[in-house]
Design goal:
alpha/beta, Arc Repressor Mutant, subunit A, three-stranded antiparallel β-sheet, Rossmann fold, seven-stranded parallel β-sheet, globular, 9 helices
Length: 262
């Protein structure tokens, strides 16, 4: 009985953290919205809301909760708008994306995580006979834009909740759908790299990435040099969890097999 209670307590705390991350991205949410996004009952949603309010993480408003006035949104937890992130270090990202696409063989099934570096793989894959599973509507749209004929890449979207200002599909539905696929490689984005491994912006993003890694034979991280010695809020995995890193500058220490894009 004690083990079951402990497991239930851990599950509740994990869900509370997920919902808090979601709230930080939205600024404000309600019980009905939480039920739809996280596939929980109204009673469960109300209990989570009460806990977040009791701990001071949120405050009640008409129809739901919001981040307390004056607290702002946690800059480390919140993802910058995709348009702003896309404008940073474009040449480095282009080289990394091209090197990543060169690893893909014709006929392969691959997974591409949403990100401003991974999205640049689109023109290099759009007209090749590959199957691409992605959680990014931006990547799906970009591939369709670059398609020049009837053939080319087949694109499958994970489904899920569209995370604000990111173009990313996340949440329980996205994670569950990823489990049905088998892929040769997963190409992942990163928020930060340090001596302990890879981090990213929030729990919802990391959950999808972990599901991608579980569905792929190889997990490859794409990250430019600005991600080094930066820690984002949630740990994705240690260096032993990935097959290869593709970057524009070699790290000071060889933490994992690395391809330096030229």
């Amino acid at each position: 009985m004690k083990q079951e209670q402990k497991a239930q307590g851990l599950k509740s705390r994990f869900r509370d953290q997920q919902i808090l991350e979601y709230l930080r991205g939205r600024g404000e949410t309600g019980v009905e919205e939480l039920c739809a996004v996280f596939s929980i009952s109204p009673a469960t949603a109300r209990r989570v809301v009460s806990r977040l309010v009791d701990t001071g993480s949120a405050e009640r408003v008409w129809g739901g909760i919001r981040i307390p006035e004056g607290a702002g949104r946690d800059g480390n937890a919140e993802m910058l708008p995709s348009g702003l992130r896309d404008s940073l270090h474009p040449q480095e990202k282009e080289k990394i994306a091209q090197a990543a696409a060169a690893l893909v063989g014709d006929g392969e099934v691959i997974i591409i995580d949403g990100g401003t570096t991974t999205v640049r793989m689109a023109p290099f894959l759009a007209n090749r006979p590959v199957r691409i599973l992605t959680n990014s509507i931006l990547i799906a749209h970009r591939i369709d834009q670059y398609r020049t004929g009837v053939g080319g890449a087949e694109v499958f979207l994970t489904g899920g909740f569209l995370y604000p200002r990111s173009g990313l599909l996340v949440g329980p539905q996205a994670v569950e759908n990823l489990r049905f696929y088998n892929a040769r490689r997963a190409f992942l984005s990163a928020g930060g790299l340090d001596e302990n491994g890879i981090t990213n912006t929030n729990q919802l993003v990391v959950e999808s990435e972990l599901a991608m890694m579980a569905s792929a034979q190889e997990s490859i991280v794409l990250a430019d040099h600005t991600k080094w010695l930066k820690k984002d809020m949630v740990r994705l995995c240690g260096w032993e969890g990935i097959s290869r890193l593709i970057t524009d500058r070699p790290p000071e220490k060889n933490y994992a097999p690395t391809t330096v894009a030229q």
